[in-house]
Amino acid sequence: MGMRRRDLSKVFSYELECLPPYSFDLTVNKRTRFGVNWYWITPYEKYYKGVMWSGIRLHNDKPVGLKVKATGSLQKPKVLLEVFSEASFSNREEKEIVEIVDRCLGLKDDITSFYMFAEGFPYLKQSVEDLYGMRVCSFPDLFSAVILAITLQMASYGRTERMIKLLYRNYGEKIMFDDVEVTVCPSPTRIADVSEEELKSECNLGYRTTFIKACAEAIVSQKAPTIKELADMKAEEAKRVLMSLKGIGEYSAEVITPHTSFPVDVWSVKIFCQLFKIKIDRSLRAMIPIVKRCASEKFGRWQKYVYTYIINDLDKLSEKFKLDI
DNA sequence: GCGTCCAGGTCTACC
DNA sequence: GGTAGACCTGGACGC
Hints:
The protein is an alpha+beta fold. The protein folds into two domains: about 5-255, Orthogonal Bundle (Endonuclease III, domain 1), CATH 1.10.340.30; about 265-320, no CATH class. The chain has helices spanning about 25-30, 90-105, 110-120, 120-130, 140-150, 155-170, 190-195, 195-205, 210-220, 225-230, 235-245, 250-255, 270-275, 285-300, 305-310, 315-320, and strands at about 5, 10-15, 45-50, 50-55, 65-70, 75-85, 175, 180-185. The strands form two sheets. The chain has a five-stranded antiparallel sheet. Strands 1-7-8 form a three-stranded mixed sheet. α5 runs antiparallel to α6 (about 155-170) and α5 packs across α12. The mean pLDDT is about 95. The chain binds a DNA duplex through α5, α6, α9 and α12.
């Protein structure tokens, strides 16, 4: 395979505005699932002393290095972004990069309204206290979202992480900037060019291989929308379009969509039934639509925030609310 | 140790 | 318009 490494240099910096309260640390360094840290943009990014080095791809697949840090305080937050690349950017590209980072950091989310809403639910009140300032992160592009959604299917946390890391290691790209090395997401073009046999054996993807490849091809041939296009659609429309991709069912569409959603699976449905006091009177899989309906009625536009705050606070919630996980 | 079972979802093929 | 059964890999469990 022999991954070439690109050396990038600084092109521009930008100060992003964000609505308080904002915790950069809790947002980019989510400690989900009992001490396990989840990545912000790539599993190979570096986070050290409040500074994040990560990388995205632009529309033309060109890798871009990001150095992001928060200055100021929870109540007077500022985010400083430095951008690295092999070549300079057009104004439009600069704008695209800033928009992606803004969205991935959830900077413009009206979190104060969510916190007021959360007052009405004891478990949310607790989570807000525990994770004060945390935002929901969006995805930089459709393909990285698709990779996560598909590798989450029918797999333990360990297996998901292994598949993702193999995909990034084998087919992603190494970039070096600010003396830090980061591996970015594979481009859909690269994955579309790899044979199914190779992809399957190199990344242990199992039957998910076909799904990943079909999605990569749909993106390359522009049959799939961009994240931005999905965001501009109505929520139901975005979900419908996502579900028309091979390997993307309801759960994956809800993981990927930039709109609010509640991506319950057979593992998390048990937790939500306990918190929402829903009686488990059938198989866990059959409980999923019931829990989803309940979440939609109770939480409306805050569903994704509710989901993320609960899932990221299970250590404390399970203790306090005696959850059987 | 070695087989067997089945999972944190989706598709296909049947009603 | 709804649902059983197959599907990769690999961890859990029975012997």
